Amino acid sequence: MCIWSLLTAWAREWQNFDWVNLACSAVLISLSFLIMRAYWRQFNRTINEDSSTVLDFDPELIFCKSAHAKSDIEWAGIQRTAEDKRLFLLYTAPGKFITVPKRAFVNGQVEELRALLEAKVSNHENRL
After folding, report:
1. Given a cut of 90, is residue 51 above it in pLDDT?
2. Tens of pLDDT, residues 2-29
């Protein structure tokens, strides 16, 4: 009699286990979507569409100017660069980079910037 009650209790637990497992999975999936949504909302708040950033590439420095900030970057501060068909990436640290879209250039300026990057930065990757 005691074994029978243990077996029925165990069977009831296993029947409910699937629902608990399903509920936990649903909660975890929902949390992951909520976290992704929160990150996207935070990222979209960082986009400042009312101002643009102007980059001026000089043989000595890179000048950056936006509506609320100005900065000068020495060429020694650029660790490496990468290029593809749409943009240049100027890495100031392994996970930190400045994006320079090629659509911002007029004829001939892309080649000038590429030559300047190859002259000033020893690690230039061309991923065309």
Report:
1. no
2. 666 655 666 666 655 566 666 778 888 8
Q: Does domain 54-126 have CATH number 1.10.10?
A: no
CA distances from residue 89 to 2, 77, 114 in whole angstroms, order as listed: 72, 13, 11
Q: What burial letters (b/e) apply to 64-93, b meaning 16+ CB within 10 Å? A: eeeeeeeeebebeebebbbbeeeebebbee
- Give me the long-range contacts of 52-61 (CB less than 8 A, separation at least 24): 55/98, 55/100, 57/113, 57/116, 59/116, 59/120
- Give pLDDT, residue 67: 80
- Check residue 27 and give its pLDDT: 85
Cross-strand partners of 72: 63
Q: In this structure, how many other beta carbons lie within 10 angstroms of the beta carbon of residue 53?
A: 14
Separation between Cα atoms, residue 95 and residue 112, nearest integer Å: 26
48: DSSP letter = -
Domain ranges of the chain: 1-47, 54-126
Going by C-beta distance under 8 Å and a sequence separation of 6 or more, which residues neighbour residue 54? 63, 64, 65, 66
